[in-house]
Design brief:
This protein is α+β, with helices and mostly antiparallel strands and 134 residues long. It has three helices and nine strands; from the N terminus they run ββββαβββββαα. The chain binds 8-OXO-2'-deoxyguanosine-5'-triphosphate (8DG) and magnesium ion.
Length: 134
């Protein structure tokens, strides 16, 4: 099966008083892994680095301008029955603009306990444990 490379952004609003908040979106029903929550992002185009793809996708999907060079935390290689994905997981805590569901998708800022209660695609389990262990 062909591997699909995907750039994924964990967008964080740092808040030492109230606890950090994470920006999550809901995938459309017709998409792969439809109706599940996700960290915004999308496929890496030919000739693009994962970091470039991240910046492009976060502008398109969420309307933010990523500042500087976001940190690549780790990669997740996961085989769904119908698709093999390689996710490049970045942390994004420096950006300009207000994050919104720029393509009409449901979107919200959530704290870690709420995040943990949402239904994400199977591949995301490692991301959630990573955030919980920090
Ligand atoms: N963006 C994102 N994709 C994820 C996550 N977890 C996960 O398994 N995926 C999978 C679902 C999809 O198979 C793939 C992302 O593809 P996508 O459909 O969002 O790609 P895209 O934004 O470029 O959209 P398009 O080309 O289909 O219009 O990665 C996640 O947290 N965020
Ligand atoms: Mg996408």
């Amino acid at each position: 099966m062909k591997v699909v490379n995907v750039a994924v952004g964990i967008i964080i609003k740092r808040d030492s008083m109230d606890g950090d908040k994470y920006f999550v979106c809901r995938r459309a029903a017709h998409q792969h892994q439809g109706n599940k929550w996700e960290f915004p992002g999308g496929k890496v185009d030919t000739g693009e680095t994962p970091r470039e793809a991240l910046k492009r996708e976060l502008k398109e999907e969420v309307g933010i301008d990523v500042q500087g060079d976001p940190v690549l935390e780790f990669e997740i290689n996961h085989k769904y029955p119908d698709k093999h994905v390689n996710l490049y997981i970045f942390t994004v805590d420096a950006f300009k603009g207000e994050a919104t569901g720029n393509e009409g998708q449901e979107a919200k800022w959530v704290n870690l306990p709420t995040l943990s209660s949402l239904e994400f695609p199977e591949a995301n389990a490692a991301i959630i444990s990573h955030l919980q262990s920090n």
